[in-house]
Amino acid sequence: HRLFLDGMRYLLARLDSDVTVCTCNDVQEAIDRFDAGERFTLGMVDLAMPGMDGFAFLRALKERRIHCPVVMVSASSSSNDIRRALRDGALGFIPKYAPGEVMLEGLRQVLDGEVFLPEALWMQINGQPIQRGQAGDGPPDADEAGLGDRQLAVLELMARGLTNKQIATTLAISEATVKYHVGILFRA
User: pTM of the predicted model, to two decimals?
Assistant: First the structure.
């Protein structure tokens, strides 16, 4: 919706004085921009979009092996939608009813390499592990396993023998986020 896009543009301008916001009216337009070679620091996609939904956007990025942190924004706060978005590669899920400051803090965390869900949504899906990718016949490479740059950085530091706390300090992320990435690595 145009009004929502205008509101998001206004809100995102508060993220940083150097922010450039590019908007698309549907998923295909966004995919076309990536196909044309444009790259972005962060992608935000609505779950319910005309033509294709936000899940199709995540699949399109994965198929093209494009690594761009994506945050799903949605009127839905269904556990299934949240779990699917994270499993399919989103690094955040923000419900549309969240206050602007929560959204901005979530985007900052994702830009810092962390996974973000508002606390109530973490509690909603708590106890149900989120698994990225599917088990295959052999060991997958990083792209096939759905591993991003942050997971590979954590893996490299693990291989050097660093503890989770040392990895967190080195990458300037929380120890809980390191544990999340380690979980993804073990599943991969």
Answer: 0.66
